[in-house]
Every structure is written in structure tokens, then in C-alpha cells.
Design goal:
Layout: E1 9-12, H1 18-29, E2 33-38, H2 41-55, E3 59-63, H3 69-83, E4 88-91, H4 106-133, E5 137-142, H5 155-175, E6 180-187, H6 193-206, H7 210-218, H8 229-240, E7 251-254
Parallel strand pairs: 1-2, 1-4, 2-3, 4-5, 5-6, 6-7
């Protein structure tokens, strides 16, 4: 299938590793000019070098703090200065810590709000002028299958990422007349540092080993394994592309069949 992404410009947040890197790599393979960002500039530069070597794509690396509106604006300005505009945005940020309701103070809730919900608002706001000038665009947010089935020990993520999902649905209606599509992708257990960390946290809480936690989690996945970031990247690239031109306001689960909702 021709995704018709050649020559487009994408901004991919939190993309020095993990899910964001998987999306950036797949877009680069499709001929997209990719602007990646991370709180750690050295990590972003290293990831950019790897992407250039493996795909021959044009890649820009920037430092971006998702809690800082000026940092988001600077990343957008650098991207437009380097590539001339923005066609695609992947709004992404690291997940908040695991824990139950009694584990978190107001400060913890505020930080999760800033990183996981308000950062998405700010990223989308920053790219809309360029997308409008270019006659359209595609926006993809990365949340979690917990927005459909909340996980007991991920209360901060459950709440904030559900807000992102509502934002996506609302904006998909408002921006459709301008040719801007907005979708959401909900990863399940993709084999990333984040998931390995959650397995380790569960192991500490239950007395199991991380390996036992992983094996226990795999029992709940019909496909019988964790997903790979390349599989995630391919699905995200499709949703961003013109091959998905009649899809907006949707949330796609990439979970090996583990969601039990209809």
C-alpha cells in the first residue's frame, strides 16, 4: 500500500526511544522529513543519527520539555524553519508513575496534567497555523488501552489520557472542515522501557519477579506476546497517512486482542 507520505513533514514528540522512536522510524522509512524531540538532547541527537543512517531521511533533533509551553513553541519554530512547515504531528509524552489514589498529592496530579494532557493541547495549538496554511494535516495522539479499561494502579494515566481521548474526538469534529484529521492510538503491552518498568513495579508490589509478571501479563493477550515498536510504528504511520484519509476521531487499539470491550 502506498501511504503517500513522501516529502511530508512530521513532528514526533518523546521520540528518542520507545513508541515515539518506533513511529519516527516508520515515517522516515516512508520518506517523511522527521523532527524528533526529547527532554534529553543527547538522546535525541543519537536517535536522529540512527534514523539517518538506517533510512537516509532528513531528521532534526531538538530538546523539548513537554511541561514547558515555550519549549514546545521553540520546537515547532525550529521545525518550520528547517523544513518549511508541518503536515503531521504525533503528540506523545512519558507516562506518569504507577500507584493508587492514596499515593498521589495535588502536585502529582498537576504534574500528570501538565505532561499528559496540557502538553497535547499545546502541541496541537502550536502546529495548527502551519497545517491551516498548508491546507490540512494529520494529528495522532498516543494514549493507552487503559482509557477503555482503566488499570487499578495507573490512576494518573487513566484520568489524563482519557482527557486526551475526549480532546481528540472534539477536535476531530471542529477541524474536519479544514482538512485536518485527529486520531488516537492506544497501545497495550508493547515491549518498551515503560512496560518493563511497570512489570518491575508490579513485581515489587506482589513479590513476583519481573519475568513472572511478564509471563502473567502475556496470559491475558490472545496473540500470546508483547507487541514490538515496529508494529506500533506501522499502525501509527497508517493513521497519519492519506491512506487513512476517511478516518478521523477514532481510537485504534494496538493490544494483541487484550481489550475485552466491544
Amino acid at each position: 500500500m502506498n501511504l503517500m507520505l513522501q516529502g511530508k513533514v512530521a513532528m514526533v514528540a518523546a521520540s528518542s526511544r520507545g513508541l515515539g522512536f518506533g513511529v519516527a522510524k516508520e515515517l522516515a522509512r516512508e520518506g517523511v522529513k522527521v523532527s524528533i524531540a526529547s527532554r534529553d538532547l543527547d538522546a535525541a541527537e543519537k536517535a536522529a543519527t540512527q534514523l539517518r543512517e538506517e533510512t537516509d531521511a532528513r531528521v532534526l533533533a531538538s530538546r523539548m520539555d513537554a511541561k514547558n509551553p515555550a519549549s514546545i513553541a521553540d520546537w515547532t519554530s525550529r521545525t518550520i524553519s528547517e523544513f518549511g512547515g508541518v503536515d503531521l504531528l504525533v503528540a506523545n509524552a512519558g507516562g506518569p508513575p504507577a500507584g493508587g489514589f492514596d499515593n498521589f498529592s495535588d502536585e502529582s496530579w498537576q504534574e500528570a496534567f501538565e505532561i499528559n494532557l496540557l502538553s497535547t493541547v499545546r502541541m496541537i495549538r502550536s502546529v495548527l497555523p502551519s497545517m491551516r496554511q498548508r491546507g490540512g494535516g494529520s494529528i495522532l495522539t498516543i494514549t493507552s488501552i487503559t482509557v477503555k479499561e482503566p488499570a487499578e494502579q495507573l490512576i494518573l494515566s487513566n484520568v489524563m489520557r482519557s482527557g486526551v481521548t475526549s480532546l481528540v474526538k472534539t477536535l476531530s469534529i471542529q477541524l474536519a472542515p479544514e482538512g485536518i484529521r485527529v486520531n488516537n492510538i492506544m497501545p497495550g503491552r508493547i515491549d518498551t522501557d515503560r512496560i518493563r518498568s511497570l512489570d518491575s513495579t508490579r513485581a515489587e508490589r506482589t513479590g513476583m519477579t519481573p519475568e513472572e509478571c511478564r509471563a502473567d501479563a502475556i496470559k491475558t493477550i490472545p496473540l500470546g506476546r508483547y507487541g514490538d515498536i515496529s508494529e506500533f510504528g506501522k499502525a501509527a504511520a497508517f493513521l497519519l497517512s492519506d491512506a487513512a484519509s476517511y478516518i478521523t476521531g477514532s481510537s485504534l487499539a494496538l493490544d494483541g486482542g487484550s481489550l475485552k470491550t466491544v
